[in-house]
Design goal:
Shape: elongated
Oligomer: single chain
Number of domains: 4
Number of helices: 25
Strand order of the largest sheet: 13-12-11-10-9-8-15-14
Largest sheet: 8 strands, antiparallel
Length: 664
């Protein structure tokens, strides 16, 4: 192919024209699959007499010599029509990018075309920059305009280098695996005398880094019911340092990273300190803020090593001062855990969609991974409403007020209008205060805070206990779900347990889940998955292992991967641990990408879960990532086994279910 191109070009007439050739990497990002981003390269062939482009081609990576030569010969045979010049070989080609003349000289000589390594005149350089700038602007039209860190007054390359070194060490330590967002840290960095408050992001796998608040009231506001981010953001803006892929950084920062060799921990761990403002502008922190981040990022992993478990999913309170070596000297950083008590009961249940979170794209990505078609994902019926059919089959009458109220709730579950559903629930309670499902619906759709939802669920549990009676519990314990009348009570109790969990009442939540499994060992509600997570959260590995054994035939990701994790904790990379992990990989090969951070968990969990698919992997990792992160070497071990063991899900793993579990 190459030889043919040379021969056909050599037969073309030679002209007196002189050309130029420029190779440049664009300051823009492109993608073919919405996952893998790259900076394209552009190669331009210019007519030096008019200064116009006569040949152009873009490449996903730096082109090889033969690719550049291919563009040149193509231009000789067919220049761009807009150039209005005839085909032919130029007398000389001036190569305006380093190294081009050395690599192309002999190939051009074979075509009897001279070449020189040259520098574009200033006027031509300005015109070229403007031309390429227009192309870059069109590619970057959706990207926010963010300044580079070195544009901040008094910020030097040495200062940013110190910050990046601290950020790399922080990312490798992954302290977010232990330190929950519910228990922020209060961090005082001299010369400041008042603490700032930090929440660590990363336990759920969506985003990694720290959110920083200069006032406790600003953090508390995050737990209030809000409709938009404007209601939550402090007037001074929302401060955070995130770890992201390079395509999310300003090009000024990327250029500086290359120039100054600032440290980066991972290809997904480029540090991005920013301030989000109510005006939607994205600003860079001040010099003092960057110095604060550097000291805090060094101090947090050292502080984590001193924390002691309280055996309840958290740590004993602690306040210590740690001397930290920064790029500008030793700083005595004081950290307090917890930094304050957040009003979890008042935390909003249904926040508005924040414009800074791109949930829609995350959902689309998840759906593509699972290869779900529109029919599968559209309007799945509420299974609770379908229970009416079972009631009719068994010939249950609607003689009592409670029966009539429950019939109304069956209709409410099928109603698509939220206002009508809520109205039906209130009407059902007016008929019978013992209608547990009415409280369940109100907790799901009318309650605006976790505390209010818990109150409604608790009333639902009490209503169910009254309706069933003590004798029912004795007679049907062990087969509850098979008795239709028990289901509203079980739904209310599950909802209450989840709310208690969100409010930090782990012991009480665990008690509810445990007793629910005694009432219904068949576990139609999937309570065992929540209980397994709680056992791990509270450091109760023996109970977790016992639960895994009780349901040993469960082939879902939560069971397979957690079995492997617990065995790794006991015996390291033993043959048994390897066998269990390989078995888990056969059932769901999507999990490693999310556990390792190669793929981020979407901001919104999938509505439905396909066993063996990406949606199941997302659901598992969202709940269990922190336990892998808390186990030294576990993620690396998993990656090594996964790399050597291609995974093919069993054919019978394709089953779709409604997701009922919540993220904590």
């Amino acid at each position: 192919m190459a030889a043919k191109s040379k021969n056909s070009s050599a037969k073309l007439p030679q002209t007196d024209r002189e050309w130029g050739c420029v190779l440049r990497q664009l300051r823009a990002w492109a993608t073919e699959d919405e996952e893998t981003f790259f900076r394209p390269w552009i190669c331009l062939v210019l007519d030096m007499e008019e200064g116009n482009p006569i040949g152009i081609e873009t490449f996903p990576q730096k082109p090889e010599t033969q690719e550049i030569m291919g563009l040149l010969t193509k231009t000789m045979r067919a220049p761009l029509p807009s150039a209005k010049i005839k085909a032919g070989r130029p007398r000389c080609i001036h190569l305006f990018s380093d190294g081009l003349q050395q690599s192309l000289e002999q190939l051009l000589q074979a075509l009897e075309v001279a070449s020189t390594q040259a520098t574009l005149p200033d006027e031509a350089q300005e015109a070229l920059n403007a031309m390429i700038g227009d192309l870059e602007a069109s590619l970057n039209q959706d990207a926010p305009d963010i300044a580079g860190l070195l544009s901040v007054p008094e910020v030097t390359p040495q200062l940013v280098g110190g910050l990046f070194a601290a950020a790399a060490a922080f990312y490798r330590a992954a302290p977010w695996g232990d330190l929950s967002e519910e228990f922020p840290l209060a961090i005082t960095v001299p010369p400041e005398q008042s603490p700032r408050f930090v929440q660590l992001m990363g336990a759920a796998g969506m985003e990694y880094g720290v959110a920083m608040y200069k006032k406790w009231a600003d953090l508390e506001r995050m737990y209030e019911g809000v409709d938009s981010i404007d209601e939550v953001l402090p007037e001074s803006g929302g401060h955070s340092l995130n770890f992201d892929a390079p395509h999310l950084l300003p090009f000024a920062d990327l250029d500086a990273i290359e120039t100054y060799r600032w440290e980066i921990a991972d290809e997904m761990a480029y540090p991005m300190p920013v301030i989000y403002t109510r005006s939607k502008a994205v600003l860079r922190p001040s010099k003092d803020d960057l110095l604060w981040y550097e000291a805090a990022l060094w101090a947090i992993p050292a502080f984590r090593e001193q924390l002691k478990s309280d055996q309840k999913g958290g740590f004993d309170p602690l306040e210590v001062t740690i001397p930290i070596e920064t790029h500008h000297g030793v700083v005595n950083v004081t950290i307090k855990y917890p930094g304050g008590e957040l009003p979890t009961e008042g935390r909003t249940l249904n926040p508005g969609q924040w414009e800074l979170l791109d949930d829609e794209e995350d959902e689309e990505e998840m759906e593509e991974d699972d290869e779900l078609d529109d029919e599968e994902e559209f309007d799945l019926p509420d299974r609770r409403g379908m229970e009416r059919q079972i009631r009719n089959i068994v010939g249950k009458s609607s003689a009592t007020k409670l029966d009539q109220a429950q019939d109304l709730m069956y209709s409410a579950w099928e109603e698509r209008n939220p206002a009508k559903r809520i109205a039906a629930a209130h009407k059902a309670l007016a008929m019978s205060p013992d209608c547990a499902d009415a409280y369940v619906l109100l907790a799901e759709e009318e309650a605006d805070t976790v505390g209010r939802a818990a109150e409604l669920y608790r009333k639902g549990v009490e209503a169910g206990e009254r309706a069933l009676g003590k004798a029912f519990f004795k007679e049907y314990s062990g087969e509850f779900w098979a008795i239709l009348e028990s289901r509203p009570y079980m739904r209310a109790r599950e909802g209450l347990a989840h709310c208690l969990w969100q409010m930090g009442k782990l012991v009480e939540a665990q008690q509810h889940f445990t007793e629910m499994l005694l009432l219904n060992p068949g576990d139609n509600q999937g309570v065992r998955y929540s209980l397994l997570t709680l056992f791990l959260e509270m450091g109760q590995e023996d109970k977790a292992s016992g639960l895994l054994q009780t349901y040993s035939d469960d082939a879902r990701a939560a069971w397979g991967y957690t079995k492997a994790l617990l065995e790794y904790r006991r015996s390291g990379a033993s043959s048994e641990a390897n066998r269990l992990l390989q078995e888990a990989l056969r059932w769901n090969g999507h999990v490693p990408a999310y556990l390792s951070g190669q793929k981020r968990i979407p901001n919104q969990l999938p509505e439905t879960v396909e066993f063996g698919g990406a949606s199941e992997a997302i659901e598992y990792v969202a709940s269990f990532l922190r336990y892998w992160q808390r186990t030294p070497g576990a993620v690396q071990w998993m990656q090594q086994i996964a790399a050597n063991k291609p995974s093919v899900p069993p054919k019978n793993a394709k089953e779709t279910k409604k997701s009922s579990r919540q993220r904590h």
